[in-house]
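Recall that a protein's primary structure is simply its ordered list of amino acids. Everything else, from secondary elements to tertiary packing, is in principle encoded there. The following example makes that idea concrete.
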Amino acid sequence: MTEQQSSYRQIMKTTSLFGGVQVFKIIIMIIRSKFIAILLGPLGMGISGLLNTTTSFIGALTNFGLGTSAVRDIAAAYNTGDQGRVSIVVTVFRRLVWITGLLGLILTIVLAPWLSQITFGNKDYTLAFILISITLLLNQVSSGQNVLLQGMRQIKFMAKSGMVGSVIGLFTTIPLYYLYGIAGIVPAIIITALTTLLLTWYFANKLKIKPAQVSRQQTFTEGKGMLQMGFMISLSGMITLGVSYIVRIFISNTGGIEQVGLYNAGFAIINTYVGLVFQAMATDYYPRLSAVANDNKKCKTVINQQAEIAILILGPIIILFIIFIHWIIILLYTNKFIAVDEMVKYAAIGILFKGASFAIAYIILAKGASKLFFWNELITNFYMLALNLIGYHFGGLTGIGISFLFCYLIYFFQVYVLVRIKFEFSFNSEFYKIFTMQFLLAVSSLILVQYLGEIYLYVFGTILILCSFWFTFIELDKRIGVKELFNKKIFNNFKDE
């Protein structure tokens, strides 16, 4: 096996692992979403979305981006093989996690009346914000445990935690919605955060990291780098969530809370059901890219490999969603949510550009270029906010989908030019071939949806889906030897018999 083939297989292994987890979570999500859609409706989903978005914004303000910045420090310490060094870094990190989590909790309690007023136009949800303030601490500590697992490449533990959490979340939140309806939203949010904390804590404790004696001065010295990098990431994340918050408030004031629920449902479809690729990037690709961050040539190779695999996997899924989105929405929610189908169709094509963009953009984090990362994301958020508001004003939810597509089209060219100039990066011809083919098939599927009746749409649409799957299979076989792996598995099964 060549080094290049081994690298491709590592990408596929991680993506497949999280793909399997994601499929499992999707099944749970389908059941959960169906119950929520029936029990709460668009109004309930709108309230839940606004509560979560608001607390996420506070979290981004107070968590100092530790969930991302600390991965580099922990991975670097772990790679040295020095357990003493690992213990010091982890001890410092855990202290910072608790401090920032408590900061988020206190700030949410203090600002609760104001948050209720600006989010819902009244102070009726003040108590709700006070109660869910505890989730700021719980989520930050949970994030800290996940960072330890990620930095030490314990991918299987992260996968198990996600799967178990999905099941527990289903069986704890649905009864609350059934018994209390909209009044069950706040308890459900708190229980979900608590469950996540317990699971991540359980798996993180399996790492057997010995606590280290670290003074306050050493805590400050060791944590300074995490906080500096994290501050820029946090500031960027806060702006991103702020944009999302403004868009939701704009939709709520213009079209009503039900429209917010529809908006949330539409992007839940997009982000959840193609999320396996992006989750794999955040979990395995980022530490792997960080390991070769000092070598631009190696970075180029790793980025191209990740981008190729991402587009090959995303292509067929996106086309499937575009062709069968009407039935997917009915399956996941109810007929009341059909209004988001046009939004999802356009946004789905934008996911192709998002996949390629993210593969490039991670090099900025891997290089530790925090200021460059911040300004890049700041500019992006400005035009994303403008395009989303313009899109909804003129085209409603469909306009939001179109603006999503254009945002990531612009972002793709923006980060490509930036990274090409700064880090001498360029895509190879294989990536362009793969992207062009999947993009053309996706656009063709969108055209079919717009102009063909149901029978012809499903016939020709299925042909496009099969073409995309076949193209993906052929290209993956070139890179990881799919046929060879399949034949070996069959041979070994016969041998065992």
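The two ends are 27 Å apart (CA to CA). The chain has 17 helices and no strands.
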